[in-house]
Amino acid sequence: MGVVLAMAALAAGLGWGCTTPPPPPEPLGVGELAWPFRPVAMSFHPLSRADSVDADTTLLLRIDFLDADGDPVKAIGSLEVEVETPTAVPTSRRWSFDLTDRAENRAHFDPVTLAYRLRLVSPWEVPPKPGDRVRLRGRLEFGDRHLDADVEVVW
């Protein structure tokens, strides 16, 4: 019985039972500490090119996302791609990809190059001529943040 009283006195002296418990930890969000490998840079991969598949003009784009260490990472968000050239009809076209959808994200991610692979079939009624300049623009939006990429390539 003496041991029980001694433990009760010790507990009372330490304040056990007399204080409110600490608040639960905050849930993890997508901030810097919660997602240190989030993309911080976006670019068009050098393997992006025009191609002819089944007699249709096709753009095969590869888009890289890099984390703060410069390593390739997957991305989550809404990806919009615009292709623009003054010599084609129409002069610009846009495509949207929902990378928050896991199936769509997996379908576009290439595990070999660690880049997103996008096939844009027949973007023009009248395509650019060989040697024309074509501007590629991309934007990934996730939450209140966004990443942009812009490059000019020769058709």
Order of helices and strands: HEEEEEHEEEE
Q: Let me know the number of strands.
A: 9
Alpha-beta classification = mainly beta
Name given to the CATH homologous superfamily:
Immunoglobulins
Q: β content, as a range?
A: 35-45%
Outline: elongated
What's the gyration radius in Å? 26 Å
Number of helices: 2
- CATH architecture tag: Sandwich
CATH topology: Immunoglobulin-like
Task: State the CATH class.
Answer: Mainly Beta
Main sheet specs: 5 strands, antiparallel
Rounded average pLDDT = 79
End-to-end distance: 90 Å
State the share of residues found in helices, binned by percent. 10-25%
- When the domains are counted, the total is 1
- Which residues sit in consecutive blocks of at least 5 with pLDDT less than 50? 3-18
How would you explain this protein's 3D organization?
With 155 residues, this protein is mainly β. The chain has a single domain (36-154), classed as Sandwich (Immunoglobulin-like). The chain is 13% helix and 41% strand. It contains two helices and nine strands. The protein has helices spanning 2-14, 102-108, and strands at residues 41-44, 49-53, 56-66, 78-84, 92-98, 109-110, 115-121, 133-142, 145-154. Strands 1, 2, 3, 6 and 7 form a five-stranded antiparallel sheet that branches. A hairpin with a 2-residue loop joins strand 8 (133-142) and strand 9 (145-154). The longest helix has 13 residues, at 2-14.
